[in-house]
Amino acid sequence: MKLSRIFIAGSLALAATAGTAGLAGADNHTSTVSILHGVPGATVDVYANGDALLTGFEPGTLTDPQQLPEGTYDLKVVAAGAGADGEAVIQADDVQVPAGANITVVAHLKSDGTPTLTPFVNDTSASEEGGRLTVRHVAAAPEVDVRAGGEVAVPGLANPNEAKLDVAAGTIPADVVAAGTDTVVLGPADVEIKAGMNTIVYAWGSLEAENLALAIQDVELQHSAGMPSTGAEGPAAISPLALAVGSLVLAGAATAVVAQRRVRVNS
Prior knowledge:
Blueprint: E1 7-8, E2 12-13, E3 15-16, E4 30-37, E5 44-48, E6 51-57, E7 66-69, E8 71-79, E9 90-97, E10 102-109, E11 115-121, E12 131-140, E13 144-148, E14 151-157, E15 162-167, E16 170-178, E17 184-193, E18 197-206, E19 213-220, H1 240-254
Parallel strand pairs: 4-10, 12-18
Antiparallel strand pairs: 1-2, 3-7, 4-7, 5-6, 5-8, 8-9, 10-11, 12-15, 13-14, 13-16, 16-17, 18-19
């Protein structure tokens, strides 16, 4: 789903990007943000400064990565189809956008089924094996083991943690089992690892509700000199815009108020 173009003070454009979530080609005044809607059951619209930012945002949807300019945003979420003047489920004004961040914000369920919000830093550092596989547990489910070709590759992964493996390009048959067992809870599925990409697999949904699903994101790895890694293990700090947009989406999905926070990413 591609984010709509928005304008700030009539002139500041949000340019949509395609393909990758890397910062290659971005200047020092933008931040790269993707959002995954991983809360089953609700579709919402999000507006920024009165213009559509996300419309018909459905569970399981991962937005295209966006190069967001530094600046100030007024954000509002409404029920899908309500329009810019619709009643706000929640509103966040004067949200400041920093520069240099590369993150994915996930609105999802905790292991106990409670809606929550988790930001992840996307690791864009070079891989010695040519590719990278990242697995993120954002489902209402206990600890799991992630298997590749029938062998446990990631043991005891708990919500909302992640694990990363540098691997060669190719196709990996993968499934998810209850930790320490052979009981399959998700999969099997063939996961394509592309050269020069961090392939990120999200397990989301609810085990109890029997709606567990996978979402897959490809993030370009950086190779150019002077491009720092943004890698970090597990949940990360988050840009104010990403936090606000993710909070708005979560609020709409959970029909609850999520307080605006402003936590800057260390670039």
